[in-house]
């Protein structure tokens, strides 16, 4: 009986001794996941780019659309908490496939909403379903890529996510302008479902599924994570094990603060430049396109720098990214909202550095290979809890106080300094 049939652990081999076929498969899995994820935001962040049209069509306020969008973040956070765990139990590809199909289906259902509740409920389910495309995907990548190369691998995934933001920034406003905001929710997300089906057939969960050995970790951080996770991979013990590691707990809060800015800009920059800068839908789309343009290149640079120059130490790069992205967001708050050249400059710089942080690789480093799905899911859940709070809070704040938008972007900048102070203690 083979290791695959019996469920016995597969043999582990040093990177130097892995066969050529292994390296072909690790790239196949990584590239397939990056291609899939490069379209994924058309089913999750499309709502943010059509908020101004929904406000006009349904006669609601940006506080209302912020509330609706916050429920997608809550749904994603809850999905994150369980989908990584489920993927480790039932298979990464299976859970990801369900998420890809569910994203397309519930975007379609959301497109028929005519009231706050009619949009809110299915949009929350979109978040829950779409979460199944993240933690299981990171889990499957971790099975093929060890710590010494993981920064670059996760950087490529992050760059794919950045490209996904570019895609949604181009496609969604164009579809909404030509066919209406409901069409932007209805048709582009179908591509996510189709690519999810393709990924299921192209990839494999683990090397042993194709008769290959697993890699052996070689550095102290990874060996400790792999060893300590033994016996803690079932049920709630996995969560208890992760939260008993204070470094992992701090990393989760840093991820949350990252998302206050990362998705704060995604949620509110389009509305800010449309309503305060006086830009129409097309002009707003092209100006704020600068943000995902910078966002796309940050992860691959951050992952490469942490692996190549800092011995896979993620904290140093996270600190650099926090300081520079904070300065860029503060710049957005202070420049005139109708200054297109300055807006483009600060959005590009802000996008690059806010997404340069290799925090996702750090979570997998600390959780170990066996708990990679759970660790990435728990970390990302914190990001979306914070993201849900910002989606509601900033929508309210922009209306509730004088110079509301200055406060919105000023608070975003302040969270970057808090992140730097927190991650300084982790140093891994």
Record the SSE blueprint.
Blueprint: H1 3-6, E1 12-13, H2 20-37, H3 46-49, H4 51-58, H5 62-90, H6 92-110, H7 116-130, H8 135-144, H9 147-179, H10 181-186, H11 190-202, E2 214-215, H12 220-229, H13 237-243, H14 246-275, H15 281-288, H16 290-309, H17 314-334, H18 340-354, H19 359-367, H20 372-400, H21 404-423
Parallel strand pairs: 1-2
Helix pairs in contact: 2-8, 2-9, 2-11, 5-6, 5-7, 5-20, 6-7, 6-8, 6-11, 8-20, 9-15, 9-16, 9-19, 14-15, 14-19, 14-20, 14-21, 16-17, 16-18, 17-18, 17-21, 19-20, 20-21
SS content category: mainly alpha
Alpha plus pi helix count = 21
**Major sheet: size, sense and barrel closure?**
2 strands, parallel
Which term fits the overall shape?
A: globular
What strand line-up does the widest sheet have?
Answer: 1-2
Average pLDDT, all residues:
86
What is the CA-based Rg, rounded? 21 Å
Q: In which range does the helix fraction lie?
A: over 70%
Strand count:
2
Oligomer: single chain
N-to-C span: 40 Å
Low-confidence stretches: 1-8
Order of helices and strands: HEHHHHHHHHHHEHHHHHHHHHH
Strand share of the residues?
Answer: under 5%
How would you portray this structure in words?
The chain has 428 residues and is mainly α. The N terminus is likely disordered.
A few lines on this structure:
The protein has 21 helices and two strands. The protein has 428 residues and is mainly α.
């Amino acid at each position: 009986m083979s290791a695959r049939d019996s469920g016995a652990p597969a043999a582990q081999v040093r990177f130097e001794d892995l066969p050529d076929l292994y390296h072909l498969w690790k790239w196949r899995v990584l590239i397939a996941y990056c291609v899939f994820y490069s379209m994924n935001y058309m089913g999750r962040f499309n709502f943010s780019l059509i908020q101004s049209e929904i406000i006009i069509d349904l006669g609601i306020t940006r506080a209302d659309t912020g509330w609706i969008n916050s429920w997608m973040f809550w749904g994603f956070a809850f999905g994150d908490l369980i989908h990584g765990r489920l993927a480790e139990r039932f298979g990464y590809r299976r859970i990801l496939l369900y998420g890809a199909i569910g994203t397309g289906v519930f975007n379609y259902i959301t497109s028929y909403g005519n009231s706050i509740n009619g949009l809110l409920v299915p949009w929350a389910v979109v978040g829950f379903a779409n979460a199944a495309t993240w933690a299981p995907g990171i889990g499957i990548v971790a099975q093929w890529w060890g710590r010494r190369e993981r920064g670059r691998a996760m950087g490529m995934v992050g760059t794919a996510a950045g490209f996904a933001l570019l895609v949604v920034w181009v496609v969604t406003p164009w579809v909404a302008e030509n066919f209406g905001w409901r069409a932007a929710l209805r048709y582009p997300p179908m591509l996510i479902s189709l690519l999810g089906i393709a990924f299921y057939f192209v990839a494999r969960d683990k090397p042993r599924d194709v008769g290959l050995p697993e890699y052996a970790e070689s550095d102290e951080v990874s060996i400790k994570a792999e060893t300590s996770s033994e016996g803690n991979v079932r049920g709630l013990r996995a969560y208890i094990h992760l939260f008993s590691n204070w470094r992992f707990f701090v990393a989760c809060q840093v991820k949350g603060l990252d998302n206050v800015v990362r998705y704060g800009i995604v949620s509110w920059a389009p509305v800010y430049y449309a309503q305060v800068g006086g830009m129409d839908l097309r002009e707003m789309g092209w100006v704020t396109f600068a943000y995902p343009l910078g966002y796309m290149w940050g992860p691959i640079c951050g992952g490469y720098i942490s692996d190549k120059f800092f011995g896979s130490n993620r904290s140093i790069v996270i600190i650099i990214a926090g300081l520079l992205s904070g300065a860029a967001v503060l710049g957005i708050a202070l420049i005139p909202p109708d200054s297109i050249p300055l807006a483009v400059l600060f959005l590009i710089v802000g996008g690059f550095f806010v997404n340069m942080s290799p925090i996702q690789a750090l979570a997998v480093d600390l959780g170990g290979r066996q708990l990679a799905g759970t660790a990435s899911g728990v970390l990302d859940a914190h990001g979306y809890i914070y993201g849900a709070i910002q989606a509601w809070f900033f929508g309210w704040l922009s209306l509730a106080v004088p110079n509301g938008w200055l406060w919105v972007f000023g608070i975003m900048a302040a969270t970057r300094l808090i992140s730097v102070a927190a991650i300084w203690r982790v140093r891994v």
